[in-house]
């Protein structure tokens, strides 16, 4: 199913009239694109994937096992940019209809200022913060349960660093004030990307970013 701006707006007006003013107040189209995918997935369920993702293997094993599945950014990205380990990614998501975690995403729009960067207000950090809170509050729930959330390893959906930001990562690694965690990440990046770049044949993930191929 493909959603254009017009159909997305009709959907929000019909299904989420209370959210519409906040939705319209986002200063960036990308924020609305993030928000609408959460609302649609909550109402209908299904699979969302960015247009620049390419399928390499069937999704059936994950879709049959988990009621809610999230992709994860390559390990090195959040370490180098934010000095923390593990970043949920909203480029690929698979949910059953009315999953409680997706409801939390939708209900939390107003808790994150619209003026901040998309990454923080509706994007990966937004999802990561709410994911960590959800897991902490549902520690008794297994990831395969109806209310569980499965955060897939990066190699499943983001098996290699984004080629488009490798220059930025090299610049980041050249800084002198890196933490121990960031220094380790730079060493790993040097080994896996600078010295041994991946080829499509080496890419064994389920999905791949087209820019990396």
From TrEMBL:
<dbReference type="Pfam" id="PF04488">
    <property type="entry name" value="Gly_transf_sug"/>
</dbReference>
<dbReference type="GO" id="GO:0051999">
    <property type="term" value="P:mannosyl-inositol phosphorylceramide biosynthetic process"/>
</dbReference>
<keyword id="KW-0808">Transferase</keyword>
<dbReference type="GO" id="GO:0000030">
    <property type="term" value="F:mannosyltransferase activity"/>
</dbReference>
<dbReference type="GO" id="GO:0016020">
    <property type="term" value="C:membrane"/>
</dbReference>
<dbReference type="InterPro" id="IPR051706">
    <property type="entry name" value="Glycosyltransferase_domain"/>
</dbReference>
<dbReference type="InterPro" id="IPR029044">
    <property type="entry name" value="Nucleotide-diphossugar_trans"/>
</dbReference>
<protein>
    <recommendedName>
        <fullName>Alpha-1,4-N-acetylglucosaminyltransferase</fullName>
    </recommendedName>
</protein>
<dbReference type="InterPro" id="IPR007577">
    <property type="entry name" value="GlycoTrfase_DXD_sugar-bd_CS"/>
</dbReference>
């Amino acid at each position: 199913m493909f959603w254009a701006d017009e159909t997305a707006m009709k959907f929000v007006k019909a299904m989420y009239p209370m959210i519409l003013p906040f939705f319209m107040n986002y200063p960036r189209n990308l924020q609305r694109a993030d928000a609408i995918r959460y609302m649609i997935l909550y109402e209908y369920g299904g699979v969302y994937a960015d247009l620049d993702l390419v399928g390499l293997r069937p999704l059936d094993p994950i879709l049959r096992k988990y009621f809610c599945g999230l992709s994860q950014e390559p390990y090195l990205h959040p370490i180098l940019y934010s000095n923390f380990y593990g970043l949920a990614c909203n480029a690929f998501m698979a949910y059953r209809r009315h999953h409680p975690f997706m409801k939390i995403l939708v209900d939390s729009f107003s808790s994150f200022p619209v003026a901040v960067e998309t990454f923080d207000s509706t994007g990966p950090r937004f999802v990561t913060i709410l994911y960590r809170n959800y897991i902490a509050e549902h520690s008794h729930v297994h990831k395969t349960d109806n209310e569980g959330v499965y955060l897939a390893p990066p190699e499943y959906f983001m098996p290699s660093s984004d080629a488009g930001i490798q220059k930025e990562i090299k610049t980041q690694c050249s800084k002198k004030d890196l933490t121990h965690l960031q220094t380790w990440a730079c060493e790993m990046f040097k080994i896996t990307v600078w010295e041994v770049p991946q080829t499509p044949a080496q890419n064994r993930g389920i999905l791949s970013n087209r820019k990396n191929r």
